[in-house]
């Protein structure tokens, strides 16, 4: 069953001579529980695609369906709420809230939704990611790898339909990158979590179940 | 090593400034507001000083720095060109009219050159000063009015006056006139020099000096380079020409001099009481502090936001000193716009406030708004100092940054906290609270800046609230008091000339509203009492130095018992006024006995009504011997020769003693205090009260000092109208005071403080709000990415707005709480200080202003973040996420 589908997804920036076709009609399907990597060079449109998948930006044409829902039929506020329930983000530069400690950062999306965290589930994520001893630390006191692990935990905590990871190891050294990716893979399997990761690094992409290549705004190979 | 890099640094500083428009705008406004505060304070202070000085000059009758008196022509010619003299003016006194219609006026006829006339306020509003070799003369409207001459140029008038003992009658043609100024004692009739000389020739003085030592002499009034050391300069000028002014009997090189005390008496620091000095210093500090709070905050925030930029500069080799200079130059450039703006606005505010203050200061009739360059120089300097102080710490912070750290720097590194013990997760209010903790100094200063305004407002209101009308009115013992206008004016002595005629009282008493009333007779003949030397010394010791005191004791007349004669002040009071006295001890009923010889001894009290028991020597049952003097005689203390009072030499010592007199003994029946409004309104001698009949009988005088009465409530308005009409329309020389004029005076006094405090609080409040705006604005702008990230993980716009609103509300709540606590803490202290300065102050605790400000702050706390957020939310999440720092 496809948890995520795009149909002829287009995004055009600018007008006239400056027109850039960031996405030129992308059709993509992601199955439940799949760990997929989207690989592309810089400027290939992979980040734009990820933003579209996560509902951060609206497309010029086409549609995105998540869990059977056409996400761009939602209004902005609805989309945000949909996002926090269905989608977890992991950014290249972690993007943790500096004034909240590790635990607070992890449960923030759940609390923003007005729910109590599922403690057992959150604890098991924390344990899987090896963050038990850091729960009260503020982000500025953590290494890059630790911060990224917190970001992954945060993305998983609300049991989203999909986790979208945007170059999650882009700021990490290769050893740490391996650790983080390993954890990503483990969680994907352990929690049957659908993960879409974008990267420019073929080697990293190899860890995924499936690799999709994007060039000039189009999917070129499966 | 000195490298020519200033230009490069300047370029950097200007360019990095361009990148910070909203900061610049806020900084300029902050600097301008600070300058506004300084300028308005200085304008008011200097205007008051100027007005005092002007008032002094008018009392003195001129504004020349000083003068040399009674010179011969030769001395005059010799001294006038001394290099220390900037400008000189000549006056030669001719004579004074002594008969009707000039009985009550001080009119002088004489020659003044154009400088001297100008310095004496003799500036014709129409016409001009008299020309030489003509029959012309110029004078003021008062003299013309007394003469019954219309102020029309060319009108002739004739005056009879005394010139050194000879009566002269002369006719003049009016060449110019100026308005009469009641504050100036002497009225002048100015005549040409040729005419003056003709009159001297006529009475036989010729080119010499008259018997009085004055008529025909040459008086040289001068303006010096500076008013700071007039006395020394005058002595130096005399010394330059071999004269001296110290010792009149040391030789014939003595020349008397006069220093215009209008200058020395009105130096702000010299003469204004310490409370005012402290108040001004306090205000200056508050302003500096206010300015510091915001300017510092603006730069601190801007530096911490641009810290990566400074780190980059460090990396490429900019030194800490250069970075400091960059920041200082930015501040100075912003001052270049902010300060002139503030000076202009501040001067406007100051000139508006000045009349409000001046109207409340006694003795100043005309408002003078100072435009002294000192105001602008001083304000600009103070504002600049505030700016420089304020940007020092931010400068140090930017200079200290290490290139490596700067790249990693995020706001919360300012505090070293790494652990946050919270397990329950984050709620929006809690996140907002945590956000305020990111830059604690910013939060603290913003809250302090807001609180300061609220605190000032609360203090102002507490102060105004404490003005107790009942206490104030308690000093006004009667509903109405009617007397000669001079009686009410500060600095005037009462004498027979100021007596209230019986006709006015008759007219007054015809008013139906009067419930009770009575006359009070004032002393208009010389009366002496006899006191011990110890008491005499104690009484006068307070105002005089030891030498003067010894001298007075030596000169004083003594009676057979060895007691010293001293002037005494008497009241003759009708029953009504006696009833208004405050009895400290004894019983006033004996005073009512007609034919009895009883007096009440007057004790003075302070503003708070506490009697000073050492202010009179007489106790109950004591006998007071009063000597009613009919005639004094003058004698030379060395030779014992009796002198002719009409013909005494200025420089010979003389003494006087009672020649014919009556001594009457009285028994002290009561010790009392006289309410200020019923007293002579000046103090200088022991005072006794007796009943009206005894007074008239014993003193042989019956001059009414004032008439006081109580009026029924219904009759008050009528009486007010009647008296206002009587004194303002019909008989200008009389005036009155009523409870309602006191109430009005009280109100305007209170309003003055309300306006001053209100304006101050308002501007400081503006600064606080500006600071708040800046804190919120920068707080939101620097977190644009963070907000986008929060939104990407599922924070809705509304949740974000709620969080920001909480931040705003915390500021507001913080300001209200802090000012509330400070007000409660400072209240008792403030009340003590104020109650000791203002006798009519009753402390009433209030936090009403704070509570009424709270809603305004709440609205601001909600509105400002929302407004700022709107501008941020125009950018899409993706745009903000991609924004690299």
Commentary on this structure:
The complex is a heterodimer of chains A (222) and B (885). Chain A has 222 residues and is of the alpha/beta class. Chain A has one domain (33-57, 74-221): P-loop containing nucleotide triphosphate hydrolases (Rossmann fold). Chain A has helices spanning 46-53, 76-86, 102-112, 119-128, 144-157, 174-190, 202-205, and strands spanning 2-13, 20-31, 35-39, 61-66, 69-70, 87-90, 162-166, 194-199, 210-215, 218-221. Chain A is globular, with a radius of gyration of 17 Å. Chain B has four domains: 1-60 and 273-410, no CATH class; 64-259, no CATH class; 426-478 and 735-885, no CATH class; 525-702, no CATH class. Helices cover 50% and strands 18% of the residues of chain B. In chain B, strands 1, 2, 3, 4, 5, 6, 7, 8, 9 and 10 form a ten-stranded mixed sheet that branches. Chain B has a six-stranded mixed barrel with strand order 13-14-20-16-19-17. In chain B, helix 2 (21-60) packs across helix 12 (320-358), helix 2 runs antiparallel to helix 13 (373-390) and helix 10 packs across helix 13. Residues 411-415 of chain B have low confidence and may be disordered. Chains A and B meet through helix 2 and helix 3 of A and helix 16, helix 28, helix 29 and helix 31 of B. Chain B: Residues 283-403, 759-875 form the ABC3 transporter permease C-terminal domain. Chain B: Belongs to the ABC-4 integral membrane protein family. Chain B: InterPro entries: ABC3_permease_C, Macrolide_Exporter_MacB. Chain B: The chain crosses the membrane at residues 25-48, 275-299, 331-350, 370-391, 444-467, 752-781, 809-841, 847-872.
Mean of the pLDDT scores of chain B?
84
Major β-sheet strand ordering of chain A: 6-7-8-3-9-10
How would you classify the helix and strand content of chain A by structural class? alpha/beta
Number of domains of chain B: 4
Distance between the termini of chain B: 35 Å
The helix count of chain B comes to 31
CATH architecture grouping of chain A: 3-Layer(aba) Sandwich
| Low confidence ranges of chain A | none
What's the total number of strands of chain B? 22
Portion in beta strands of chain B: 15-25%
The number of helical segments of chain A is 7
**β-strand amount of chain A:** 25-35%
Overall spatial form of chain A:
globular
Give me the CATH fold name of chain A.
Rossmann fold
Radius of gyration of chain A: 17 Å
Largest interface: A-B, 39 and 36 residues
């Amino acid at each position: 069953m496809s948890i995520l589908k795009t149909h002829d997804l287009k995004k055009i920036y600018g007008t006239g001579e400056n027109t850039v076709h960031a996405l030129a009609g992308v059709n993509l399907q992601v199955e439940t529980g799949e760990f997929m990597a989207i690989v592309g060079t810089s400027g290939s449109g992979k980040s734009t695609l990820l933003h579209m998948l996560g509902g951060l930006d609206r497309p010029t044409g086409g549609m995105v369906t998540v869990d059977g829902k056409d996400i761009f039929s939602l209004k902005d506020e609805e989309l945000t709420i949909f996002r926090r329930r269905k989608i977890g983000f992991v950014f290249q530069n972690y993007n943790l809230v500096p004034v909240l400690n590790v635990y607070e950062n992890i449960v923030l999306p759940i609390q923003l939704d007005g729910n109590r965290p599922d403690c057992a589930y959150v604890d098991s994520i924390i344990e899987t990611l090896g963050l038990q001893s850091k729960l009260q630390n503020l982000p500025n006191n953590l290494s890059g790898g630790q911060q990224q692990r917190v970001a992954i935990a945060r993305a998983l905590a609300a049991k989203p339909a999909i986790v979208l990871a945007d170059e999650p190891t882009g700021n990490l050294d290769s050893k740490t990158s391996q650790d983080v990716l390993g954890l990503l893979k483990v969680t994907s399997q352990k929690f049957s979590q659908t993960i879409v990761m974008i990267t420019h690094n073929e080697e990293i992409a190899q860890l995924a179940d499936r690799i999709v290549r994007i060039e000039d705004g189009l999917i070129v190979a499966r | 090593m000195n490298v020519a890099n200033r230009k490069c640094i300047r370029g950097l500083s200007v360019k990095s400034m361009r990148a910070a428009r909203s900061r610049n705008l806020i900084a300029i406004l902050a600097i301008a507001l600070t300058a506004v505060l300084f300028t308005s304070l200085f304008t008011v202070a200097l205007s008051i000083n100027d007005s005092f000085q002007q008032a002094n000059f008018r009392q003195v009758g001129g504004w020349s720095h000083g003068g040399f008196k009674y010179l011969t022509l030769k001395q005059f010619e010799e001294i006038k060109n001394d290099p220390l003299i900037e400008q000189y003016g000549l006056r030669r006194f001719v004579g004074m009219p002594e008969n009707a219609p000039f009985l009550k006026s001080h009119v002088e006829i004489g020659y003044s050159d154009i400088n001297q006339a100008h310095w004496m306020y003799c500036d014709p509003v129409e016409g001009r000063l008299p020309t030489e070799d003509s029959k012309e003369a110029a004078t003021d409207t008062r003299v013309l009015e007394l003469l019954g001459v219309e102020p029309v140029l060319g009108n002739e008038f004739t005056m009879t006056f005394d010139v050194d003992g000879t009566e002269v009658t002369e006719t003049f043609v009016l060449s110019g006139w100026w308005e009469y100024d009641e504050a100036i004692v002497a009225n002048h009739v100015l005549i040409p020099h040729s005419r003056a000389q003709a009159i001297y020739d006529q009475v036989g003085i010729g080119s010499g000096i008259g018997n009085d030592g004055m008529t025909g002499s040459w008086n040289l009034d001068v303006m010096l380079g500076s008013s700071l050391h007039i006395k020394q300069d005058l002595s130096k000028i005399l010394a330059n020409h071999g004269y001296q002014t110290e010792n009149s009997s040391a030789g014939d090189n003595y020349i008397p001099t006069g220093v215009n005390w209008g200058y020395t008496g009105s130096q702000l620091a010299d003469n204004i009481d310490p409370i005012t000095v402290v108040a001004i210093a306090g205000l200056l500090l508050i302003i500096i502090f206010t300015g510091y709070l915001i300017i510092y905050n603006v730069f601190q925030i801007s530096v911490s936001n641009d810290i990566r930029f400074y780190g980059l500069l460090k990396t490429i080799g900019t030194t800490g000193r250069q970075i400091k200079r960059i920041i200082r130059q930015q501040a100075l450039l912003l001052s270049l716009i902010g300060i002139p703006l503030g000076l202009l606005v501040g001067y406007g505010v100051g000139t508006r406030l000045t009349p409000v203050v001046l109207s409340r200061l006694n003795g100043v009739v005309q408002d003078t708004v100072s435009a002294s360059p000192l105001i602008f120089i001083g304000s600009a300097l103070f504002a600049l100092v505030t700016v420089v102080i304020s940007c020092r710490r931010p400068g140090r912070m930017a200079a200290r940054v290490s290139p490596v750290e700067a790249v990693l720097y995020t706001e919360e590194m300012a505090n070293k906290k790494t652990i946050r013990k919270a397990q329950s997760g984050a709620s929006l209010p809690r996140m907002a609270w945590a956000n305020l903790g990111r830059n604690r100094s910013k939060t603290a200063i913003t809250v302090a800046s807001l609180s300061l305004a609220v605190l000032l407002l609360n203090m102002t209101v507490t102060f105004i609230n404490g003005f107790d009308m009942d206490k104030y009115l308690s000093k006004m013992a009667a509903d109405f008091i009617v007397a000669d206008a001079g009686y009410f004016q500060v600095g005037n002595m009462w004498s027979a000339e100021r007596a209230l005629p019986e006709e006015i009282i008759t007219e007054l008493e015809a008013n139906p509203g009067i419930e009770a009333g009575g006359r009070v007779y004032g002393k208009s003949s010389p009366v002496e009492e006899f006191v011990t030397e110890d008491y005499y010394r104690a009484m006068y010791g307070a105002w005089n130095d030891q030498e003067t005191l010894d001298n007075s004791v030596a000169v004083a007349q003594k009676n057979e018992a060895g007691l010293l004669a001293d002037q005494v002040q008497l009241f003759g009071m009708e029953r009504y006024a006696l009833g208004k006295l405050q009895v400290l001890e004894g019983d006033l009923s004996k005073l009512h006995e007609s034919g009895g010889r009883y007096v009440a001894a007057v004790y003075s009290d302070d503003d708070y009504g506490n009697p000073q028991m050492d202010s009179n020597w007489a106790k109950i049952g004591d006998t007071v011997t009063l000597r009613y003097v009919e005639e004094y005689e003058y004698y030379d203390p060395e030779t014992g020769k009796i002198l002719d009072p009409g013909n005494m030499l200025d420089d010979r010592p003389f003494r006087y003693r009672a020649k014919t007199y009556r001594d009457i003994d009285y028994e002290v029946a009561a010790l009392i205090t006289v309410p200020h409004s019923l007293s002579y309104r000046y103090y200088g001698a022991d005072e006794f009260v007796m009943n009206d009949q005894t007074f008239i009988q014993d003193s042989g005088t019956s001059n009414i000092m004032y008439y006081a009465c109580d009026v029924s409530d219904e009759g008050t308005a009528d009486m007010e109208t009647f008296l206002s009409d009587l004194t303002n329309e019909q008989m200008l020389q009389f005036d009155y005071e009523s409870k309602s004029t006191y109430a009005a005076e009280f109100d305007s006094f209170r309003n003055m403080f309300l306006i001053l405090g209100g304006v101050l609080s308002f501007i400081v409040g503006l600064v606080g709000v500006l600071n708040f705006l800046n804190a919120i604005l920068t707080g939101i702008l620097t977190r644009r990415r963070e907000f986008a990230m929060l939104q990407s993980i599922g924070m809705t716009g509304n949740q974000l707005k709620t969080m920001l609103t909480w931040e705003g509300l915390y500021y507001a709540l913080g300001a209200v709480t802090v000012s509330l606590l400070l007000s409660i803490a400072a209240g008792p202290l403030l009340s003590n200080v104020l109650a000791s300065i203002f006798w009519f102050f009753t402390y009433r605790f209030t936090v009403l202003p704070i509570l009424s400000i709270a809603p305004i702050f709440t609205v601001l706390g909600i509105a400002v973040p929302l407004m700022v957020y709107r501008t941020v939310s125009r950018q899409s999440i993706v745009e903000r996420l991609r924004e690299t720092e």
